[in-house]
Design brief:
By secondary structure, the chain is mostly helical. The protein has one domain (2-219). It is 75% helix and 0% strand. It is built from nine helices and no strands. Helix 5 (102-124) crosses helix 8 (172-191). It is globular.
Length: 220
């Protein structure tokens, strides 16, 4: 029980750190990260907040990933909901400063990528499932036999293109984040001495089987 409580705290702290990193990149005003261009465009189209657009996109992606046969963990569901909630909390309360000059904005954006990398480490290391967008990427890699880099790039190109058409902000920061995001995440993982390939995720399906075996089968 104590182990699960600590894992739960680490998971949600990781989501909050991810939200801080995302808002830092948004408030740097150099252009949004590829998926955030889509979220902002969807926000402008529908009139909902960016956080709610993040949640709505996550729900759609999880549904699509499930169709492709990718398993869903509790962490996937929580990721889908709470990062968006934390983004709205930070932005609506103006808890992270907004920069307009190039050098402070660039520093803010790069720090945001690093913070996001640490947030991903925190929630992924719990082993309760990856985020919706990463889950879709994994599902498409399995289905198409294409490389992770190829699928990730295609996903982000589509997200940026649709987001831009809908009115999302594209700038030099968008291209920098597309290029540097993976490097900063890898750097954060290295500092934390975290090997993502060693993580064994626990899925909702596993918990359902456990409950059936533990309670239903015993009664039988």
């Amino acid at each position: 029980m104590r182990k699960n409580i600590l894992a739960f705290i680490k998971l949600f702290f990781g989501y909050f750190v991810c939200a801080v990193g995302i808002v830092m990149t948004i408030n740097s005003n150099l252009g949004l990260a590829p998926w955030d261009v889509f979220h902002q465009g969807l926000s402008k189209l529908t009139g909902i907040t960016i956080g709610r657009a993040h949640i709505l996109t996550g729900v759609s992606i999880v549904a699509l990933s499930s169709i492709f046969g990718e398993k869903v963990g509790w962490g996937t569901i929580f990721n889908m909901l709470f990062i968006g909630i934390f983004i709205d909390f930070l932005m609506l309360n103006n808890l992270i400063p907004i920069f307009n000059k190039f050098l402070p904005s660039l520093i803010m954006m790069l720090l945001g990528l690093l913070v996001l990398g640490f947030g991903c480490y925190l929630y992924l290391s719990v082993g309760w499932g990856s985020g919706p967008r990463d889950g879709l990427m994994i599902a498409l890699v399995k289905k198409t036999n294409k490389s992770v880099r190829f699928i990730k790039n295609i996903q982000e190109i589509i997200a940026v293109s649709i987001g831009y058409i809908l009115g999302g902000s594209v700038g030099i920061g968008t291209f920098l984040m597309a290029i540097l995001g993976g490097y900063f995440m890898q750097f954060a993982f290295k500092i934390a001495k975290f090997d993502v390939s060693q993580i064994q995720h626990r899925f909702i399906e596993d918990d359902i089987k456990f409950i059936k075996e533990k309670f239903i089968c015993k009664k039988s």
